[in-house]
Every structure is written in C-alpha cells, then in structure tokens.
Amino acid sequence: MGKRTAIVTGSTSGIGKGVAEGLAAAGCNIVLNGFGDAKQIETQRAQLEKAHDVGVIYSGADLTDVAAIEGLFEETAKAFGGADIIVNNAGVQHVSPVEDFPVAKWDLIIALNLSAAFHTIRLAFPQMKKNGWGRVINIASAHALVASPFKSAYVAAKHGILGLTKTTALEGAQHGIRVNAICPGYVHTPLVDGQIDDTAKARGISREEVINNVLLAAQPTKEFVKVEDIAGLVTFLISDAANQVNGAALSIDGGWVAQ
C-alpha cells in the first residue's frame, strides 16, 4: 500500500491545522477542510505538500450539509483513491443558559460537532472494511466526560461523540478499523488567545489571572494543552503501536477529569 490518506476536518486553523501538519510529517496525504482566507489556505496547502513530499488538497465542504460531506469524499476518492484516516475535529461552541439557548445554535452545534462525524464515519467505513485497515480519531473534549454549566449543546454533542466512538469501534474491530476519541482540556489556540484578552478586559483583571483563575482553574498542571501534544497523540493512534487501542476516550487535559 502506498501513502495513507487522511481527511482532517476543521484543519485550516487551531488543533486541526496542527494535526494535519503532524500527519503530513508522518507521510500521509492530507485533505484539508475548513473555512478561512483563500490565499492563506492555499499557502498552507502548498507548504505542507512541499515540506513533507505528500499530496495535499483542500475542500471547503460545509460539514452541516450532508451532500457537501458526500462531495468531500468524492473529491478525496478522485485525488487519492479514498480516505484511510478520518480525524473529526471541526466544531463550534455557544454559551448560554438552557432556557435562553437559541434553537438555531443548538441545531448548528449538534450538526457540526456530532452529526458530521456520523456522516464521515458512515462514508469511510465501506472502503476501510474493503482495505482491512482504517483509523477514525474523533477530537472530543474534556466535556465529553464532564460537564460545565451553560454549554448544553456542546456537552451533549461531545458526550454523543463518545457513544458514536464506542459503537463504531465495536463495528470495525474485526475489520482492521480502530475508532478512538481524544478528549483535550483547554488548548492554547489563536481563538482561545483572543478570549483571554476579551475576558481580561471584561473582568478588569490581567491575562495571567484569566489564564490561571478562569481558563485553567480545572487543569491541575495550570498549563494549556499544546496543539502539538494532540497532534502527537493522533500520530500515535495511526501507528502499529496503537493497534489494540480501540473505543477509547484518551484524556489530554492536565488532570482535569482525574479530580
């Protein structure tokens, strides 16, 4: 078999971008997916391709649209013959008391954070079964294992991702397919960095106080999870060393859910 091919959703920034870089460095062809500036995305695509001598394409498929997800798989099949690895990373968040939670936001979060993963898995499984090899890695969250107030849709979706992970892990187990979930705590991405500044301004406190007393209050190490940490775990999960890791929820949260 030649190079493995990985679809990484939400890979034009943040965690997904780091995961795509890690998988390209491991020798995988990459299908980038997400939103952003077209020139920046093309630069990212070209740099990955050149740096790691792999094939890299970009799909702007809207993962809340089932037909668009099917189109993503058609593009992947045309470019590389299909997908061997799926990393379901794309997601969105909204914070609100449940009685005020906008119905449209609930629908969006469930569609992108949960239903999109169902669709990528159902579309990937037939070829993975045929090949006798496949890896699905769902980027869940510490919120797949524990809850926080005012995040009803996100917590529900991430708990759902664990159920989907376990069920499909059982279905793929005798076909060489491994399905696992990674459950990160707070990760220091550009998006989170902006939230630090906004929170500091709103509360009239320093960035350091926001980091230690607000964001990292639940993380005993008082350190952010690094994008590279998650990328490293993904790379491990596609390796032969992880062949018996299946249906697992792997926490990478500085000890958050150990409390």
Looking at this protein, list some descriptive labels.
259 residues, alpha/beta, Rossmann fold, 2 domains, 48% helix, globular
Record the SSE blueprint:
Layout lengths: L4 E4 L5 H12 L3 E5 L4 H15 L3 E4 L6 H15 L4 E4 L14 H29 L2 E6 L12 H21 L4 E8 L5 H14 L3 H7 L13 H11 L11 E4 L7
Parallel strand pairs: 1-2, 1-4, 2-3, 4-5, 5-6, 6-7
Helix pairs in contact: 1-8, 3-4, 4-5, 6-7
Characterise this structure.
It is a single chain. By secondary structure, the protein is of the alpha/beta class. It folds into two domains: 5-186 and 226-252, Rossmann fold (3-Layer(aba) Sandwich); 188-224, no CATH class. Helix content is 48%, strand content 14%. It has helices at residues 14-25, 38-52, 66-80, 103-131, 152-172, 190-203, 207-213, 227-237; strands at 5-8, 29-33, 56-59, 85-88, 134-139, 177-184, 249-252. The chain has a seven-stranded parallel sheet, with helices on both faces. Helix 2 links the parallel strand 2 (29-33) and strand 3 (56-59). Helix 1 crosses helix 8 (227-237) and helix 3 (66-80) runs parallel beside helix 4 (103-131). The longest helix has 29 residues, at 103-131. The protein is globular. The termini are far apart. 40% of the residues are buried.
Give the ordered list of helices and strands. EHEHEHEHEHEHHHE
Distance between the termini: 44 Å
Per DSSP, what share of the residues sits in E-state strands of 2 or more residues?
5-15%
Main sheet makeup: 7 strands, parallel
What class do helices, strands and sheet pairing give? alpha/beta
Tell me the domain tally.
2
- Which topology of the largest domain does CATH recognise? Rossmann fold
Major β-sheet strand ordering: 3-2-1-4-5-6-7
This entry's quaternary arrangement is single chain
CATH architecture of the largest domain: 3-Layer(aba) Sandwich
- Separate helix tally: 8
Q: What Rg, in angstroms, do the CA atoms define?
A: 18 Å
Helix content: 40-55%
Name the CATH homologous superfamily of the largest domain.
NAD(P)-binding Rossmann-like Domain
Let me know the average pLDDT: 96
Q: Count every beta strand, where a strand is a DSSP E run of 2 or more residues.
A: 7
Low-confidence stretches: none
